[in-house]
Records
---
Amino acid sequence: MADERTRPARNETPLERADRNFSELLQELRVTQTGVQILFAFLLTLAFTPRFPDLDSVQRATYVTTLLLAVLAATLFTAPAALHRSLFQQNAKPAIVQVSSRLATAGLIVLMPAFTGSVLLVVDVTLGRTAGIVAGAGTLLVCLILWGVLPKLVGRSSDRDRDGTPTSAPAAGESPVRSPADRLS
């Protein structure tokens, strides 16, 4: 993260930046946690539906794998709260923000195949295996584009100012922890 570039437009201390970045991260986690909780609840209820015993071995493997991925994603997205609670008032906010950001990124990476598997399973059961594979692949592709490619494109465009020159790297002593909002300031 130290090689990320940002425009030095905010007049804040490293601790103020860490507080702001943690607050922004928590807002992001509120959105993702809700989606993961809904997905997880949906997957949990599937095992108790009348049609579940009719699933073939591939569908059952997809179900179990997707359920476990959803659990892992939920765990990764809630870990920042546990980390913060464990290190509360120990002057560790910059480290908490950095680790929490990595946990959230890992959660998004795990969430991609969880979304893919859930779409694959539902479409496989309702329309057939081929349609399920196509829908699952499409879901994965959309996630990769929106969560991977798009941020890189936006980051590249924000790395250049109006004259087309790259922005400077963080100043000495400045926190390397950055949020997407830092690029907008």
Note: Residues 120 and 132 are 4 Å apart (CA to CA).
---
Amino acid sequence: MWIFTFHMPLFVMVTGYFAKSNLFGGAGRKILLQIAMQYIIFQTIYLAMDALLFHVHNTHYSYFAPYLLLWFLASHIFWRLLLIMLHKLTPLQQVITAVLLGVLVGYLPVDGVWLSISRTFVFFPFFIIGYHFSYSRLQVLFTHKIKIVALTTSVLLFIWIAISGLNISPAGFMAI
């Protein structure tokens, strides 16, 4: 449980970081096409395998509903497109917009599976943060005091999860 508190946001942040060099222009279009082709190929394979062998319950047999782990490829395409649309805003405005969009999408009366819309917008701020990440700025901000606070928070979270076990609910996080 402890690793689940940060592993996907961190992975999306790293994805955003590596999008710096190839978000715009011909390189950006080439990467978008590569991701889209990977999505189409693997979605086809997974859907065929599910129909023939796996028979996973509640599977949507559609290219608009990513099969299990393929949500990441679908979301990656949308993160890139959304960031291109927001490129005229400052980094802070982009993050604020992404957070607001993530909250608003939670109110849409749609199944979050379709186009992985829920995950796309929930993780979008992390993609933006990764895109604008600078190691030199991190070194300035990451003082000894911040390191101790981060370590203490991580250890306390680990202990809380170890004591609570799998009985952690979203309501528990709201009570903090």
Note: The first helix runs from residue 7 to 18.
---
Amino acid sequence: MIRSAVVGDVPVIHAMIRELAEYERVPEEARATEEQLREALFGERPAAFAHIAQTPEAEPVGFSLWFLSFSTWRGVHGIYLEDLYVRPGVRGGGHGKALLAELARICVERGYERLEWSVLDWNLCAIEFYRSVGAVSMDEWTVNRLTDDALRKLGGAE
């Protein structure tokens, strides 16, 4: 079952973000606090949204965290999926597909024309899963990122 996250889910989402960072081999990068997540998801002006996958017994086993994007070419919003995570012991049980299907449903319902995300090139299981639901790799695009010192330098803080 998939449901929208509620404030009480913040510790669970926080824990799963830490698990995801460990899986992606960069635990030191997961610096968000529970308070930051609470504000981002449930503050006065939410910056992101989350869904929880759970077992029939209501045990949380996965999550998606997403925000709105905008396509200048299409002229409408889309969804950018920041994180999709399903705990290892329940992978293959349909939870990831259900999380993606919920986001696709939201896109269709609201007239959004894109659902996009990134995947690490070494995560072959995820890549195969995404292909199985019809996702197309945007191989001609390269992700760029500014963080830490480079961001501060460009932003004039150094």
Note: The longest helix spans residues 95-110.
